[in-house]
Amino acid sequence: MKVALLGDVHANLPALEATLAHARQNNIDAIWNLGDFVGYGAFPEEVIHVLRTSQALSILGNYDRKVLKVKEKAAEWQVRKLPEKWLAFKWSYDHLSQDCREYLHSLPEQIRLKIDGQRILLVHGSPSSREEHLTPETPAPRLEELAEQARADIILCAHSHVPFARQVKGTWFVNPGSVGRPDDGDARASYAILSFSGGQFQVEFYRIVYDVARAADAIRQAHLPESFAQMVLLGRNLDWINANPNQTS
Question: Where are the alpha helices (DSSP H) in 26-170?
Fold first, then answer.
């Protein structure tokens, strides 16, 4: 069985389309999506539609949850959040149909599977928190704690936008990186293909060239901040973009 593992699409339709085309060329059997469909990009509705019609097995991301809470948290977030971040939440909410909002509401935050006897856990952040960033630098003792808590052989996570695979005391942690908003200075979409055969597990990481200009131009045409366009053009997060105003593409 071959699975396309992806996450953090963040409303970037051109990146998602290129990633899925590459995955299908590799004869994948399933698509697993680790959440954060929306945010910053100009195609929230379209991204949800593509993943739904592709029959992706999906969980809810932390950003998806925030977007769903826009009305409830509006007064607080307009004061506490950076104006750009509040705008990203509200714009995403306003540009989702009721059907797509209900779909996001229906998604679980974790999914457990068993393939060839291997216990698999899908989470957005970590088994402990949807907000926890797991990276190649996460201390091994912390991963050991999470592995013991999760009781899984393979833990699939996203959120940090950093691709990696690490094995700690028999448990694999795999993060496919971000399809739509990489943070490592490489603007190409990032995802992974998992292979399960005869009780064995393998992972291969890919970086996919896509029409980054189309994604950036759509952000501008939507009258979203230029910083959002620079995020996809440069492969950096909003904090980095704001801290480096002279390094634009």
Answer: 44-53, 62-68, 70-80, 83-94, 98-106, 140-150
